[in-house]
């Protein structure tokens, strides 16, 4: 029986054209974020299963690729559940590993600590456009900064990066978990039901106000609370430019004025410092799926994709799960795979990084002549060019066509008979 040549479902082979763009995007991301003072780190691809299943990862905890115990520890005969069979899991995001890393190494880290982490993560998700079971995340996080300077820096750095990649007219949607809770409390929902309410609210962009109403009622919530809740969102339709002010006035004492001031400062500061074409948009329907968010939350909305292309928020209680002492923390994850997908669909051309030159060398080239060719190629690379040295094929015309498709624009042919060169 022949072995399967296709990759595992939800994972993919990456061809040279895409790899070239991926490498370029990573270079832009690293260069941009480092100019904002972020420091690169790396964490293992696997974590202890207890760290990944601590009821903070939302629906993603249902998508963990679990790793079986090994050797004598794997005893199927005594296992009463799948949890008895696994002790490790593949990381489903970079935030949990970062928090463990910080908790373990914070004595040797600057304060506040500005982390940059790029790497693959795994989720047993249903594959679709721009969503895979193995994919890269690019995160920046600030730990130890309790003020909204963290949000301002994270949003400014990320939008600057997107601008450098050629994206325009996108949105940064912003909200605050404290506003979500205040709206739910104002409407009369019990606090222990907030998460269920927010999960339904998160479907707003797909099912609309009427769909959210029907869903809430079907889950047993009082009609009076549902209607009072949704009236807040209906009122926003007449306050598109001052939605935050409207929500604050509507909620009254249910919402601390400090929350409005906090968000106003973020929005105004980012707008003043922005180096790309985008809009900051207050969106009270924004939920974000992770249960670990405690305050500000935000997402990137790029029209060409039609959905989220990254997001993040504040998670001030997560470090305390490891150390017993809460530490202010906030992060932003750029949707790397979706950014690459959009660039591929736009037939993105990587900015000129020097000429791409192909040296085509005839077979049986004398050793001394070959040394001269390699020396010439090295000199041209030192001058900033990309130089490929390759044996000349019989069908040289087809060979050059293939190289042109890879971006090579200059060709130099070397024949054994130097008079033909």
H-E string: HEEHEEHEEHEHHHHHHEEEHEHEHEHE
Q: What is the level-2 CATH architecture name of the largest domain? A: 2-Layer Sandwich
Structural class: alpha/beta
* Overall residue-averaged pLDDT value: 89
Distance between the termini: 51 Å
Q: Please, how many helices?
A: 14
Number of domains: 2
State the name of the first-level CATH class of the largest domain.
Alpha Beta
Tell me the helix content: 25-40%
Indicate the proportion of strand residues.
Answer: 15-25%
Characterise this structure:
With 421 residues, this protein is α/β, with parallel strands linked by helices. 40% of the residues lie in helices and 20% in strands. The protein has helices spanning 16-35, 49-52, 95-105, 149-164, 177-187, 194-201, 204-218, 223-236, 243-251, 257-273, 318-323, 336-345, 367-382, 396-405, and strands at residues 39-40, 46-48, 66-68, 86-90, 113-122, 134-143, 170-176, 278-282, 296-302, 307-314, 329-334, 356-361, 386-391, 410-414. The strands form three sheets. An eight-stranded mixed sheet has the order 1-5-6-11-10-9-7-8, with helices on both faces. Strands 2-4-3 form a three-stranded antiparallel sheet. Helix 1 packs antiparallel against helix 4, helix 4 runs parallel beside helix 10 (257-273) and helix 5 packs across helix 8 (223-236). It is globular and about 90 Å long.
């Amino acid at each position: 029986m022949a072995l399967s040549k296709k990759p595992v479902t939800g994972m993919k082979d990456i061809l040279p054209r895409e790899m070239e763009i991926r490498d370029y995007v990573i270079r832009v991301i690293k260069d941009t974020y480092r100019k904002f003072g972020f420091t690169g780190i790396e964490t293992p691809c696997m974590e202890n299963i207890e760290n990944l299943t601590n009821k903070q990862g939302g629906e993603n905890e249902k998508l963990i690729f679990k790793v079986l115990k090994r050797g004598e520890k794997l005893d199927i005969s005594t296992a009463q559940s799948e949890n008895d069979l696994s002790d490790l899991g593949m990381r489903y995001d970079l935030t949990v590993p970062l928090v463990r890393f910080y908790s373990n190494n914070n004595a040797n880290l600057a304060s506040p600590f500005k982390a940059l982490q790029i790497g693959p993560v795994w989720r047993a998700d249903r594959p679709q456009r721009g969503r895979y079971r193995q994919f890269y995340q690019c995160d920046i996080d600030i730990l130890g900064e309790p003020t909204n300077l963290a949000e301002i820096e994270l949003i400014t750095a990320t939008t600057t990066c997107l601008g450098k990649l050629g994206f325009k007219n996108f949105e940064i949607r912003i909200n605050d978990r404290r506003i979500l809770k205040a709206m739910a409390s104002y409407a009369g929902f019990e606090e222990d039901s907030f998460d269920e309410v927010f999960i339904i609210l998160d479907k707003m962009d797909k099912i609309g106000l009427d769909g959210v109403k029907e869903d809430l009622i079907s889950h047993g919530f009082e009609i009076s609370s549902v209607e009072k809740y949704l009236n807040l969102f209906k009122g926003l339709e007449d306050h598109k430019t001052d939605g935050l002010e409207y929500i604050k006035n509507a909620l009254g004492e249910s919402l601390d004025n400090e929350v409005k001031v906090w968000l106003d400062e973020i929005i105004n500061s980012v707008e003043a410092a922005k180096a790309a074409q985008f809009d900051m948009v207050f969106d009270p329907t924004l939920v974000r799926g992770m249960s670990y968010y405690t305050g500000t939350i935000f997402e990137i909305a790029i029209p060409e994709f039609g959905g989220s292309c990254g997001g993040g928020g504040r998670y001030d209680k997560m470090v305390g799960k490891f150390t017993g002492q809460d530490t202010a923390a906030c992060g932003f994850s750029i949707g790397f795979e979706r950014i690459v997908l959009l660039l591929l669909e736009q037939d993105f051309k990587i900015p000129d990084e020097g000429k791409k030159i192909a040296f085509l060398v005839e077979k049986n080239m004398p050793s001394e002549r070959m040394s001269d060719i390699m020396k010439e190629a090295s000199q041209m690379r030192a001058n900033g060019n990309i130089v490929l040295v390759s044996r000349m094929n019989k069908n040289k015309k087809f060979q050059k066509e293939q190289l042109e498709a890879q971006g090579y624009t200059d060709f130099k042919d070397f024949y054994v008979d130097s008079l033909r060169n």
